[in-house]
C-alpha cells in the first residue's frame, strides 16, 4: 500500500517573512491557505528557495511559464490564468526585494535578514 498519497498534512497559518526560509510544509500550507491548490502537484517537496526560483522564472517569462505550468498540471487539477495570476500576486510579498527596488512590503525585511 502506498502511504505517500494518503499522508496527513498540517496546514500552517503563518510563514517566515522570507520565502527563502520556507520548508516544503510552508509552501504547501501557503498554497492551501490562498486557495491555490491546483499548483500543489507542481510543488511536491519544493522548499521556499526552489519556489522562489519558479516565481522568478514566472516573472521573467510570464506567458511561457504559464503554458509550461499549465501543461504540467494534472487534468484533475487544471491551472487557469486566474490562479496563475493570483499566485504571482500572493507570493510577491514574501519574495526578497532586489537592492535597486523600493517597497514597503514584508519582503524588505527579508532582504535585511
Characterize the structure shown.
It is a single chain. With 113 residues, this protein is mostly helical. The chain has one domain. Helices cover 45% and strands 0% of the residues. It contains five helices and no strands. The longest helix has 13 residues, at 48-60. The radius of gyration is 14 Å and the shape is globular.
Please give a handful of descriptors for the protein shown.
single chain, 113 residues, mainly alpha, 0% strand, disordered N terminus
Topology (SSEs and partners):
Blueprint: H1 24-33, H2 48-60, H3 62-72, H4 81-91, H5 107-112
Helix pairs in contact: 2-3
Write a concise synopsis of the structure shown.
The chain is mainly alpha-helical. The protein contains five helices and no strands.
How many whole angstroms does the radius of gyration measure? 14 Å
SSE string: HHHHH
Pairing-aware structural class of the strands and helices?
mainly alpha
How many domains would you count in the coordinates?
A: 1
Oligomerization: single chain
Task: Tell me roughly what share of residues is in helical segments.
Answer: 40-55%
Distance from N terminus to C terminus (CA atoms, Å) equals: 44 Å
User: So how many helices?
Assistant: 5
Principal-axis shape: globular
Average pLDDT: 84
> Low-confidence runs (pLDDT<50, min 5 residues)?
1-8, 100-106
Q: How many strands?
A: 0
Biggest sheet: strands, sense, closure? none
In percent, how much strand structure appears in the residues? Answer: under 5%
